[in-house]
Amino acid sequence: MGALRLTLLLLALLAAAVAGARPSEVAVGALFTYDSTIGRAARLAIELAVDDVNADRTVLAGTQLKLITQDTNCSGFLGTIEALQLMEKNVVAVIGPQSSGIGHVISHVVNELHVPLLSFAATDPTLSASEYPYFIRTTISDCFQMNAIASIVDYYQWKEVTAIFVDDDYGRGGVSALGDALAAKRARISYKAAIPPNSNADVINDVLFRANMMESRVMVVHVNPDTGMRIFSIANKLQMMASGYVWIVTDWLAAVLDSSTSRDLKDMSHIQGLIVLRQHTPESDAKNKFISKWNSVARNRSITSGLNSYGYYAYDSVWAVARGIDQFLNSGQQINFSADPRLHDSNGSMLQLSTLKIFDGGEQMLQQLLLTNFTGLTGPVQFNSDRNLVRPAYDILNVGGSGSQLIGYWSNYSGLSVTAPEILYHKPPNTSSIAQKLHNVVWPGDSTTTPRGWVFPNNGQPLRVGVPIKASFKELLAVSRGPDNVTGYCIDVFNAAIKLLHYPVPCQFITIGDGTKNPNYDDIIKMVAANSLDAAVGDFAIVRNRTRIAEFTQPYIESGLVIVAPVKKATSSAWAFLKPFTLEMWCVTGALFIFVGIVVWILEHRTNEEFRGSPRRQVITIFWFSFSTMFFSHRQNTVSALGRFVLIIWLFVVLIINSSYTASLTSILTVQQLATGIAGIDDLISSALPIGYQAGKFTRSYLIEELNVPESRLVPLNTIQEYADALKRGPKGGGVAAIVDEMPYVEIFLSYHCNFRVVGQEFTKEGWGFAFQRDSPLAADLSTAILQLSESGQLQRIHDEWFTRPSCSSDDNEVGATRLGLGSFWGLFLVCALICLFALLIFFIRICWQYSKYSSSEAAGEPSEADAAAAAAAAASVAAERQRRPSRLGSFKELMQFVDKKEEEVRRTMKRRSSEKDNQTAGSSDPQSMASA
To answer: According to the UniProt entry, which residue ranges have a biased composition of type Basic and acidic residues (predicted)?
Structure first.
């Protein structure tokens, strides 16, 4: 018992010793610009946070937090000096700086001295943990803010923005992140307007003037809060705050608006319609209590500036440091500093570098800070693996009147929404395009219509439009009296579409080609992609490899590859009437005629007198009936049900055969025949004949790459006359067997030469469009204009004006009529034959049944015993004769004789025998009754 008391006493003494080892106070530094929008809010917030920490007995019990502040004076040089002076005071952590530029410099210092740096306002994404391990960002990185801006740009379907930014680490880092975020949304920064730091009004005016010359009207402004308002005043003088413009401003403007307690109405008139982002801080009792306390102290100190969101992050940063120090001390660590042997005072130097000490427990303090996890004024204060705060979110504001309206939120969890992020965190994430929502916006110029986001650039340069000049097909493109006088179907469509735009588009046509040979169309598209041209107008097919490097409009004409081949008139002959059917078809048809005639004769022979007579007459009847049905002129009538059924089916077959024969014979006697025998693309590929194509077009690469046609078979052609000459010469004369080209060219070619024809069907489907640089908004507007031309009928009228030559007669468009073979009719013939066999089967079943009844009635009608004795001699001779012949042969002969009998005669015989049987039965019963009597 005594030993136990002694142990407890020793533990108590040890605990007291440990408790006594905790320092009475711990120095923490703070770096910010006192006289700045962010600094004024952060200074009071940090002081209130220190007071709250020291008043809270659950944190740093027995240890006071000592705050040492230094003013960076919005200067990188002075800020660096102030930071070094702060490090001389043996601080264990530094809150700040608010400037990203100073943060880059100071981070190198704290890395060497092992002092954690917690910045509540340095948002530059390039301040990364990999380069600056002792830098901790306790606010939201601009990487997330730029993702929010990209989501807004994508929500309104804009594709290009102009970035206006301050040309320092903060501005360049933010714009770099903006470019990456826009690229993920298939948008881009079309122009970067960099404003040098501390620029005067003239410099800002020049920068904005150049930005206004560009086509984008979506301005993203990322500058410093204390100088940014001048941008909008100058932009207003340049009439850049009018209708049609879009201004998206990063969170610096929200800090200015929140900090301005007495708004200058003149300044507010310059920023009407802007979209502004602000760090989202959820509503809570702690936040409301802090706001009330901050306002009360600000009034007592006569602070005219208001509280902004950076003040909340500064307050939470102090609490994060306090909790980190508390955990550091609770783990038994000591706060010690040691001299760095690399830092020593040089002779005559006044820098006193030796006063800078290394914090021995800096690494442990850093780890404790990274493990921070509590709920502050800004929400959860916790760091992920990238040392960014979890759950980054922004309010999206629309400036209007004397204030701003909340139109939605953005969070990294669910994107754009009109619901607060803290509510969405309790639901599954949903970043689909349907879920993205914002309230209505009042845009600059007091407009409620969403701006298009771009205009034609007002830089004095007309649109450079490349036009291919071809050696032929002048209906499509032609030049007369200089490059400015370009005419043709394609040019008229382009000019008509340009006139429908709501803004002027001056164009300068640049002709490409010498007019003797066709230029390479793929090279022209590459010139557009390389910015040597702004657009390409002409007969450009929209194909896969071109859409990868250029933007095309809606097709203004349908096009597809077809085959053109020479044709010749078919020579008539005395035996032309046999050509509609093949030999097999003639043989099977004739056999079927005879077969049906025999079937009908069998079915009608017993009941129809017209199908009876001598054998010679019956054979003649079979052939006459069979072939007379071809002309529906048969004289014999069918009386049996089965015969009529077979005849109906057969007459239907005859109708089909007659119609097909007539159509085929007409075609053979009138249509033109292919001179080369090529009837389609398969025939052309499988042959080894040369193929012509239009030089410069995509046809060559398509035939080689897609259809695997050897390049040696391809012959380039330029003009319509070359087309005709090559086809006329043919493969044997050094020409081509066929030409593969797009349908519009073929229509023009055939309007000049009628001895050629299109064979087969179109084997590709594409269209012609105008080419622009990738993501050019002009392409989308022209597509809308082309659709408007099509709906109004003007597009068809332009087509009719240029394609006015009468085309060749279409009466003989069918080329190479083919003979009809058995393959086209075997199904019909099979059905007819099966029906005939079915009718015969029923007929013979009925015959066998009748024959059975007929034989039984014959046996029943034999003479009585008295009569049998008298006929014994005759019966003996008949029996002897039957023994000399097979009984089966006799039965078959009897069956045939039965079949040859008339139906009516069989019925009378069966009826007579039935009566005789009844009489014999009655006669045999009378003698028996007399004998019994």
So the answer is: 902-919
